[in-house]
Structures are given as structure tokens and as C-alpha cells.
Write a structure and sequence with these properties.
eight-stranded mixed beta sheet; alpha/beta; Rossmann fold; Arc Repressor Mutant, subunit A; 21 strands
């Protein structure tokens, strides 16, 4: 006891006040780096050791297994092991409650929990029963709608009733109903059901509700700003009787609204729980004063927030460093050079993090670090060239380069889904072995198509035709032309777009960013007066993709998205891509609350830095294979200029940062921010990836222009093949099905 009280005496006054306040609703507004976990764990220890509250009567819930384990370990360090106390994630707590009373919501106690793969299987079967191809309506898209409905307690019938009577809505409602029936029949729940059924149980079964209300007399919720509607209902139902609810969170760090988090849960806490005490933890133990001042100068512009300001008794520290690069390659080179300069006896690579807005941005830094021999690791995701969609497209390109590459073809034969199951694949491989032919040769045989289902046969015919055509013409096409054709003609890009989920959108961005790698390669060859080849490009990328550049836990620079960085800290942080349209994201300009959430994300990024913070932007950025001039981020313009050194910050309304002439007040009437996605949707790509001219539009003597070979003259036409004399490479025979020709 003495040890615990001594430790409590070492807490700052606000932390100590929060730890000692046990009765009634309590909102702890815990700013970034303010020691919230210590406050929570010592509050629990004080309850048990000093006040004699049984661990049986305490519930602590958080969002991740890692956070729950950390809290449990720290409490056990203070009060001893073997506590009969629930320190769990929301899902684990609900699962435990449902195991005890599953029969009350129509399930047996041995119900199973379906993972995402199980869920997709159920949806695919429902689509198959209705003869709907999952290319047209993907399982991931349907599951995202079902999940959203469950979070809002919307039944299939209510979904159909409130969303109109169009055929698509009726079909989704019908599949939703079938999905629920299948789960019930199989005595199964999904992850959304765990919270939904627990809320239903507590709402409808009074004796169960009273039991758990009496059991959990003291409830604590971590990261309360990230709770959704159902989680809020779950907590409110449990806390109704004793009202001893302590929630800990920071509205300024609510960055997950896109996946259901409702910031109003924390903003309205005092309305929902009358008489609530509010304690603000504003002393930051992580960052230097200049970094905190910069974070506040950004976040104070949000209207939907509780008033607070982080402070520290640390020194001011270095000013933020801002660098405006000419282009994004230079931006990456600058960051790599600065890391090289910083690291030495006093600074390790692992002290440094590069935090970016989108996963696709990692490629530039991976390339730059590889060139300088800087070790790195990607947290919260895969290295760029290890991502599934990138590896899939590399496999497509390898088969075009080498039609005998059976391994690459096997990888992408069913990507996207083409109705060829594992057994069919094994039979096709066996046939190739017997015939002593490549797998592509077997797939190109009409007799083989007839041996498959009608849909699978048609799909294999289309796939083999695309690959054979591109393989035949690969020397006559730029690498980017081949890539565009593969993205569109194989259906890979459109299949991802139809999923319409956050994950699929990120995958599309990664695919489109791969075009920037191709663009860089072609530009290098053009500058050298040479013609690039698919073979050479694949060799170059393979070197990058195959290098074992990192091991978990090694001394390496950390690359990660801003979303993934929440809860972490680093002595040195780089935040690249500070441009309108990239950060804040171009999507945020279309939503009322979009900029506010992006601003919170900026605040999270800034407060990850302990000692040094670098902000960078690029005058000209190539993303998704397209170059654009950019304007500096709104958030850069909000930071107090006295806190930054380096390049000046450009402002709107014609303000000249060098002469100081004009109005520096931000004004978005200047026009649209950079929207990198607009030109790259599959509809636009289809036009670029299909032939521009047909044989009927050409005649001998016509002048034409070719993407790769420049200007030429049509010599002859035979069927769908044109013989063209080019100044640069002489006479070439081109298949008009794919040749990127334009009349001059």
C-alpha cells in the first residue's frame, strides 16, 4: 500500500485527482503524451488496495488486445497477479457475456465467431444462389453495408424500407437477410454481432442487465473518442445503475470516423451523464515546447472540440524544419539525406519515423532509402513492393514478358475471381505437364475452355487473349501502355473499384502509384535518349522487391501512415506530402466535417515527435502516374510562423511569400485542390488502354504518331496489322488491337 501511495504522490496534480476520483461519472480528457495509461492503472490499483473494491466489480474496456494486455500487466505489477477482473477489448467483453447467456438471444452457448473469410464465403454462396456475379457486386462491398447497418441497429427490412425500392437495394437487402439466416442456422455470429447481440441482451433481458450492472459497479473505458454508436450503448446500459463510469480520451485524436467512431460520444459526455466531473490532463511528457505549440496552432482551428492546450516543462527545443522540394523525388532525396546526416553515435535509425497520409506514398521513400543503404521497416502494413496488388500486377507483367512463366500465371489466373477453382487449376497444370506446354498455351486452347464451366471458359479465353496479344506486341509498346492494358483489360482495376471499401480504395491507390514507378523509369530512359523495355523495368523492380531490407526490431527507420502512428512516439519525425489534396486529403474537401478530421490527424502526427519535426512538401508531385503542380497544405499555413525555420509558407489570395504582397488569409476560392484520383478511374483508363485507330480509319500514306516510336508513315495494311515506317526505328509491324497510334 505504501508503495502505491508513494507512486500516487509522484503523479501530477491532475493525474492524481483523476486517480482518486471514484464515484460518479468522470471524463478524463487526456492529451497526447499526458500519461493516461499510468493514470488509469493507478486509479484501478487505488480502488482495489486502498478502497477495498473487489476486482470482480471492475470492468476496463479498450480497443486492441495489445492495449488490454498492457493495462492488465501494469495493474498486476501494482496489485499482484490472479485478479478476477475484466480488462478486455469491447469484443472480448461482449463475447464473454454472450457465452453466459447466448440462449437469451436465440443462440446456443457453443456458437462460433465467423472471421472475414467465413463471412465472404457466406456472401459468395448467396450471390451464387441468385446467379449474381461477384464481379458486379463484390462480397466486400456487401459486407461493408451489412456492417454499417449492424452498427446502427438497422435490420434488412429497415435497410430496404429506408433506402428506396431500386433493384440494387432490394438485392442487398435480400442478401443481408439470407446472410443473417445462414449465420443463425450455423449457430454463428460475426464480429459486429458480438456487440449488437450483447446490446440486445442487456436491453431486453432485465435480469441479465441487473446482474451485470451490479457486477460492474466501476467501469472504465479507454480511447472513448473512438467508440461508435453500439459501443456507446453497451457502456451506457452497464453504467445506468451505479453511474460510476470513467472514460478516458482525447477528442483532438478522434481520427477513425471513417470506420464508425462518433466524436459526439466524447463531446456530449456531460449531457449524457449528468453531474460528470471533467479533468484535463494537459501536461505533456513527450515533446518539446515548440512542437506542442505548433500542434496547438493547428488544432485550435477546429470548432468541434473541447478547449484545452498541451504544455510541458521541457525546453523549447529546436524549431520545426520546413522544406519545399521542387518535386517529390527531390523531397524523398532530401529526407534520405537528412536521415543520413542525423544518424551516428548519438542517433539511431530506429529513432526516426516518416509518417505519410497514404500507403502509396511509401514507394518514394523506399526507393530513396534503398539507394542510400538506409535500413527501414514499414509498420502497420507491407513494404510497397510486397503488397498483394503490386505483386499481382508484377506477375501479370512477368507473364507478358515470359509467356512460359507458369508460376506467375498461376498466381494471377484467378485474380480477380474468374471461376477457376483449385481443382481446375491442378487439372490444367497436369494437362500442361502431359502436353509439355506452358500453362498459357493450355489456357489458349478452345478445347480446354469447353472443359470448364461456361463462365470460367469465357474468362480464360479473355485472359489468354489479352496476355498473348501483349506478349506479341511488347517490343512495340511502352511499359506504361502494357500496364494500362493489363489494369483494365484483365478486369483487375474495376473489380477493386466495385468493392467500394476503404481497403480496396487504398489498394487501387497502390496500383495507380505503381504507374508512377513506370513513369520514372520511362522518363530516365527518355532523358538518356533510349527506349525502355519491359524486361529491363522488371529487372529493376525485382532488385527493389527482393532485397530483405528490414527485420522486425532491427535498427531501422520506421515508415507508416499517420493513422497507424497513433499511440507511438519517436525522437525525430518527418511528415512529407504537406499539400492540399494529399494532406488534407482531397476527399476531405467534399465533406462538412472532413477538414476537421484531417486536422486531428495532423495534430496526431505532430505530437508523435519528441525532439525534432520536419514538414516537407513538393512543388510538383507525380502520383498515380500523373504530375501536378501543388499548393501547400492548409495546415502548414495554420502553424505559427515563429515556430518554423526553412522555406516560407505560401498563402492564398495571390499572396507572394517572397515579396509579402497580397492577402495571406486562406481562401479556398482559388480552385480545386490536387485530385490525383480523378483521371485514373477505370472508365478513363479503358479509353487509354484500348486501340485509338482501327484499320478502316487508316490508309497507306497516312502519317501517324506512336507513344514509343514517335512519328511514322503507314506503308501497308493487312487485316488488323499495320506496317509503319518510323524515323527512329525503321519499319515495324503493329497489331492495331493494341497499338497506341494517333493520326497526325
Amino acid at each position: 500500500m505504501q508503495q502505491i501511495m508513494e507512486y500516487l504522490n509522484k503523479l501530477n496534480p491532475e493525474q492524481r485527482e483523476a486517480a482518486l476520483h471514484l464515484d460518479g461519472p468522470l471524463l478524463i480528457l487526456a492529451g497526447a503524451g499526458s500519461g493516461k495509461t499510468s493514470t488509469m492503472t493507478h486509479r484501478i490499483a487505488y480502488m482495489i488496495r486502498e478502497k477495498g473494491i473487489s476486482p470482480y466489480n471492475v470492468l476496463a474496456v479498450t480497443f486492441t488486445n495489445k492495449a488490454a494486455k498492457e493495462m492488465r500487466d501494469r495493474v498486476e505489477t501494482l496489485v499482484g497477479e490472479g485478479l478476477n477482473m475484466w480488462i478486455l477489448t469491447f469484443h472480448a467483453a461482449c463475447l464473454r457475456i454472450l457465452r453466459m447467456h447466448a440462449d437469451r438471444v436465440g443462440y446456443e452457448k457453443n456458437f462460433v465467431v465467423y472471421d472475414p473469410d467465413d463471412q465472404k464465403t457466406v456472401i459468395r454462396n448467396a450471390l451464387k444462389e441468385r446467379a449474381v456475379e461477384d464481379k458486379k457486386m463484390t462480397p466486400a462491398y456487401i459486407l461493408s453495408i451489412i456492417s454499417d447497418c449492424k452498427e446502427k441497429e438497422i435490420s434488412p427490412e429497415e435497410y430496404e424500407r429506408t433506402n428506396g425500392e431500386n433493384p440494387k437495394v432490394r438485392l442487398i437487402a435480400d442478401i443481408y437477410k439470407s446472410y443473417e439466416q445462414t449465420l443463425k442456422k450455423n449457430n454463428a455470429m460475426d464480429f459486429d454481432d458480438l456487440i449488437l447481440r450483447a446490446v440486445q441482451l442487456l436491453s431486453e433481458e432485465e435480469d441479465v442487465r441487473l446482474f451485470f450492472q451490479n457486477k460492474f459497479r466501476y467501469i472504465m473505458v479507454d480511447e472513448y473518442q473512438d467508440t461508435n454508436y453500439l459501443q456507446y450503448r453497451f457502456v451506457k446500459l452497464l453504467a445506468e445503475q451505479h453511474n460510476n463510469l470513467c472514460v478516458v480520451g482525447d477528442d483532438d485524436q478522434c481520427i477513425y470516423q471513417w470506420r464508425g467512431a462518433d466524436i459526439n460520444n466524447i463531446l456530449d459526455f456531460e449531457k449524457d451523464f449528468r453531474g460528470a466531473k471533467v479533468i484535463k490532463l494537459e501536461q505533456n511528457y513527450r515533446s518539446n515546447a515548440n512542437i506542442l505549440a505548433a500542434a496547438h496552432s493547428v488544432i485550435k482551428n477546429n470548432r468541434g472540440r473541447k478547449e484545452k492546450e498541451l504544455w510541458t516543462d521541457k525546453e523549447k527545443g529546436e524549431k520545426l524544419r520546413y522544406y519545399r522540394a521542387d518535386d517529390d523525388k527531390e523531397e524523398a532525396r532530401f529526407i534520405a539525406a537528412e536521415i543520413d546526416r542525423l544518424c551516428g553515435p548519438a542517433r539511431s535509425y530506429s529513432d526516426i519515423a516518416v509518417l505519410y497520409r497514404t500507403n502509396a506514398q511509401s514507394r518514394r521513400f523506399e526507393d530513396a532509402f534503398f539507394g542510400k543503404g538506409i535500413p527501414y521497416r514499414v509498420l502497420g502494413g507491407f513494404r510497397y513492393y510486397d503488397r498483394k496488388e503490386v505483386k499481382d500486377m508484377m506477375s501479370y507483367m512477368r507473364v507478358v514478358q515470359n509467356p512460359s512463366d507458369d508460376l506467375s500465371l498461376e498466381r494471377i489466373m484467378n485474380e480477380p475471381k474468374r471461376g477457376v477453382g483449385d481443382k481446375s487449376v491442378e487439372k490444367l497444370k497436369a494437362l500442361a505437364r502431359v502436353r509439355k506446354e506452358s500453362l498459357l498455351a493450355v489456357l489458349s486452347d478452345p478445347e480446354v475452355w469447353e472443359g470448364l464451366s461456361a463462365a470460367a471458359g469465357k474468362n480464360m479465353e479473355e485472359l489468354s487473349a489479352v496476355i498473348n496479344l501483349l506478349a506479341q506486341e511488347r517490343e512495340n509498346l511502352k511499359v506504361s501502355d502494357i500496364y494500362d492494358a493489363l489494369l483494365v483489360r484483365t478486369g483487375y482495376l474495376s473489380a477493386l473499384e466495385k468493392q467500394n471499401t476503404v481497403e480496396s480504395e487504398s489498394r487501387v491507390e497502390n496500383l495507380l502509384e505503381f504507374k508512377s514507378a513506370i513513369y520514372d523509369y520511362e522518363k530516365e530512359k527518355e532523358d538518356a535518349g533510349e527506349l525502355g523495355t519491359l524486361s529491363e523495368f522488371l529487372e529493376k523492380i525485382s532488385l527493389m522487391a527482393e532485397v530483405d531490407n528490414h527485420e522486425a526490431g532491427e535498427n531501422a527507420v520506421v515508415l507508416m501512415t499517420l493513422h497507424s502512428s497513433k499511440g507511438l512516439e519517436f525522437p525525430v519525425v518527418f511528415m512529407p506530402g504537406m499539400e492540399d489534396g494529399l494532406f488534407p486529403s482531397w476527399r476531405s474537401f467534399d465533406k462538412k466535417e472532413g477538414i476537421e478530421e484531417e486536422r486531428r490527424l495532423c495534430y496526431v502526427g505532430i505530437t508523435r515527435a519528441m525532439e525534432r519535426l520536419y514538414l516537407t512538401s513538393s512543388e510538383y508531385r507525380t502520383m498515380y502516374g500523373k504530375g501536378e503542380h501543388t499548393r501547400e497544405s492548409l495546415f502548414l499555413r495554420e502553424i505559427d510562423k515563429s515556430l518554423i525555420e526553412g522555406d516560407g509558407i505560401w498563402a492564398d489570395k495571390g499572396f507572394d511569400r517572397y515579396s509579402g504582397i497580397g492577402d495571406p488569409t486562406p481562401d479556398f476560392s482559388l480552385g480545386e485542390p490536387f485530385r490525383p484520383f480523378a483521371h485514373m478511374k477505370s472508365a478513363a483508363e479503358t479509353k487509354a488502354a484500348k486501340p485509338v485507330l482501327s484499320a478502316s480509319e487508316l490508309a497507306p500514306g497516312d502519317k501517324v504518331s506512336h507513344n514509343k516510336f514517335g512519328q511514322g508513315l503507314i506503308i501497308s495494311l493487312e487485316g488488323n496489322t499495320a506496317s509503319v515506317a518510323f524515323d527512329s526505328v525503321g519499319i515495324k509491324k503493329l497489331a492495331l488491337d493494341i497499338a497506341p497510334l494517333k493520326k497526325v
